[in-house]
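Async update (no meeting this week)

Hi team, since we skipped the sync, here's where things stand on the single-chain job. The sequence we agreed to prioritize is pasted below, unchanged from the tracker. I ran it this morning and attached the output directly underneath so nobody has to dig for it. Comments welcome in thread, and please keep replies under the output.
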Amino acid sequence: MIKIYVKDYGVMSFELDYENAPISAKNFVKLAREGFYEGIVYHRIIKNFKIQCGGYKIVDGKVRAMEPSYSIKGEFKSNGVDNNISHERGVISMARTQVPDSACAQFFVCHKDAKFLDGEYAAFGHMIDGFDCLDKIAKVRTHKYDEYMQDSPYDIIMIEKVEVIDEPEE
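Output:
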C-alpha cells in the first residue's frame, strides 16, 4: 500500500497491482522511496476525468519541470501487455506521451470512470481510501486551455510525501 499526502487536502491510499503492472508499480515505489514525489505539484486537473502530477516541482518558489532521465515500458494491451485493470474511479495510472514506452514519474488518478483509456495506459493500482481528497482536488478552479496552462490549478496543490507501506523491495 502507498499513501499520498497532499498538503491542505488530505491523504489518498492505494493498493498497487504487481500482477498486472509490475514495472509501473515497482517504478512508482522506487521514486517514492527516493523522495522524488515530495514537493511535486498537481499540474493537470480535469473535473470528472483525472488529476495528474509527477513532472513539476516547486524550486525556489517557482514551478519547474522535474523528471528522471529514463522511461519504462508501458504495460497496456496496445503495447503488447495484458493489463486487466480498468480505468475506473480511483485507479492510479502512468501518464505518458504518444510514445508507448515514455512513462516515468508522471501519474494520474481517475476522478471518474475513464474506460476509454483501457488498453492504452498502464494502470497500476486502486484507491482504497481518500476519495474525499480526490474529490476536493478535482473540484478546484483551473486555467482554461492555453498553450502553457492547460487545466492547471490556479492555486498550488502539492504532495508533501508518499509513504510506502508493506511494498516489496526492488
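Quick observations from my side:
Residues 88 and 140 are 21 Å apart (CA to CA).
The chain has a mean pLDDT of 93.
Reply here if anything looks off.
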